[in-house]
Amino acid sequence: MLNEENIIIKNPLEVDINLASVYPNLYRTAMSSLGYQIIYGMVNAREDSFCERVIYPNHRSIETNTPLSEFDIVSFTIQYEQDYFNVLKILKASNIPLKVEDRLNEKDNSYPLIIAGGPCISSNPLPLADFVDLFIIGEGEVVLDKFLDKFKTLNNPKKEIESFLDIEGIYLYDKLVKRMIVSDMDDAFHLNSPIVTKTDESDFKPALGNSILLNVSRGCFRSCKFCMSGYLYRPMRETSLNKLLNTAIDARDKTGLNKISLVAPSVSDYSQIDELSKKLLDLGFDISMPSLRIESITKETLENLKESGAKSITLAPESIYTLRKRLNKDINDEKIFQVIEEAFKLNFNIKFYFLIGIPGENMVSIEELVEYIKYINTLKNSITPKSKIKFSVNPLIPKSHTPFQWMGYDIKDIKKKIRLMKKELKNFDIKFDSPKMGLIQYVLSTKGREIGELIQKSIPDILDKNNFDDLKIDIKQWNQHSKGYKIEDDLPWKNIDIGIKESFFKKQYEQLLNDYD
């Protein structure tokens, strides 16, 4: 049984635009997505519009149980490439033709306009170009109101689709577009009335719990070579301390929530993080920091988290030092072990993230990584045997708009390295991401419009309500797209301007190759 507070209900007949905001992943993930909740708040703040939520695997709205096909606009918020499959499943289950051309050919113009946005869409929307009418590139606050205003003026938006090109940040296939971001974070849309979920079912409990999502910053200044978001949302922009405190107080007054989840690419990089944490604690809030950057974690940061009642933190050393440095994550082991020791002394549980498949990595590197993980375990046992540690090992996935965008993906190499690590770390609490899913994510991240057919082929002809997650994956076909690009190749996302010159990425990539040649 799912009950929610702070949802918004309007009469669909009394507004000009009925928009379905669709999240193609599970409820617990959707309701911890800041971007998804921003869209809900922004659209419903307009008197002329009503935004309802549709969350996978459902294809009717939560607010009024309206079928997806009856909305004017269907807007997908996509944070993970693997959710591209779910986009097509939701459309198919709603009896909406999958392809743009098929919807356009309908004489009665009865189907909704399909739009999409989110980080992976902003970086490379090409794999979904056959299925989505238009894309929003960048942060939605800058584009959304202008888009809705334009929509109201058009008699047939699907047939007048190029009219939207007047708006910066709107992308149509093969057109030039500039990524848009909020310049002043105090002017961004801050959630002061979040939806509160009431349920005993674990599937409907938000991943971050019922909490106030406080957006402390966007963008990053670190330039880790594998991180798409780090380049996509440059520069780093911070919300002022007063704005954050006022938003937190306002949200608590409206919801009764006392838990704060600080949201940023790296919360500990916020320039006033310790002052913010202390002030929130003084105001009686509990604090969660889902994203911490090792080199900016201080003892005070950890102590504030502990005082707030936090029991666990997440750290990402990524690899051994030589490979970590190659990723432009130049954190020495002394600093990492210092943070780990301080965390263990405060009895934190720690989850560690590591990458494999880094350029220049070999089997000797993997053996060194195994010893590195064993040492962390020894460190824990010497300080706090009661604390729990978990390890997650993930294939590095080259992404568009990063120095790794020309690289391929070698599934055999990844499998070989995972086999060695599993053998050496049998008794550890360690999870390995699937090499097969890594391949699929690589293809979805770095290939063009031609991949649309492969995505569509992976959707079952008949959707099984009891097994909606089912896919028809022919891994051999996907592996045919595992090769990288030559440095002189035209890349599929060449028309998307994120504010960084291609020559910068080329220089970084060539430097990377020279480092281990």
Automatic annotation (TrEMBL):
GO cellular component, one term: ribosome
Pfam families cross-referenced by the UniProt entry: Radical_SAM (PF04055), Radical_SAM_N2 (PF19864)
Record-linked InterPro entries: Elp3/MiaA/NifB-like_rSAM, Radical_SAM_N2, rSAM, rSAM_horseshoe, rSAM_sf
Domain of life: Archaea
GO molecular function: iron-sulfur cluster binding; transferase activity
PROSITE patterns documented for this protein: RADICAL_SAM
Domain Radical SAM core: 206-436
SUPFAM superfamilies (UniProt xref): Radical SAM enzymes
UniProt key word Protease: no
Entry keywords, A to Z: Ribonucleoprotein, Ribosomal protein, Transferase
Listed name of the protein: Ribosomal protein S12 methylthiotransferase RimO
Organism ancestry: Archaea, Methanobacteriati, Methanobacteriota, Methanomada group, Methanobacteria
Annotated gene: rimO
